[in-house]
Amino acid sequence: MTGDRPCHRCGTDSVVAVLRLPHTWTNAAGDPVPVIREVHLCAHCDAGDIARLTRALLPWLDRARPPEPDERAWQADVDAWHRGDL
């Protein structure tokens, strides 16, 4: 499957994906700390458990936004294309 690590629940090499999702936790001082939360999807443990995947992805999808286009970079590409540099 992924080959880089066994499932932490069943110990088999059946991890099909490791989702790395942005998350925030609060440290002892009360400050928010941005971290990456890993969710392991195992063919053995999660067989038929689409609800687990949904619970993991929905909060992330609510915050996911495509990056804003960079108008200056776009214009530079257009200008380079007109000059024949692309």
How would you describe this protein?
It holds the Pfam family DUF6300. This is DUF6300 family protein. InterPro entries: DUF6300. The chain contains two helices and two strands; from the N terminus they run ββαα. By secondary structure, it is of the alpha+beta class. It has one domain. The chain has a two-stranded antiparallel sheet. A hairpin with a 5-residue loop joins β1 and β2 (32-42). The radius of gyration is 20 Å and the shape is elongated.
> Helix share of residues?
25-40%
Task: Calculate Rg over CA atoms.
Answer: 20 Å
Please report the distance between the alpha carbons of the first and last residues: 40 Å
Low-confidence stretches: none
Protein name: DUF6300 family protein
Pfam family, one: DUF6300
InterPro entries: DUF6300 (IPR046267)
Organism: Dactylosporangium fulvum
Please outline the helices and strands.
Layout (H helix, E strand, L loop, with lengths): L14 E12 L5 E11 L7 H14 L7 H13 L3
Antiparallel strand pairs: 1-2
Short summary:
By secondary structure, the chain is an alpha+beta fold. 31% of the residues lie in helices and 27% in strands.
List its salient traits.
elongated; single chain; two-stranded antiparallel sheet; 27% strand; 86 residues; alpha+beta; 2 helices
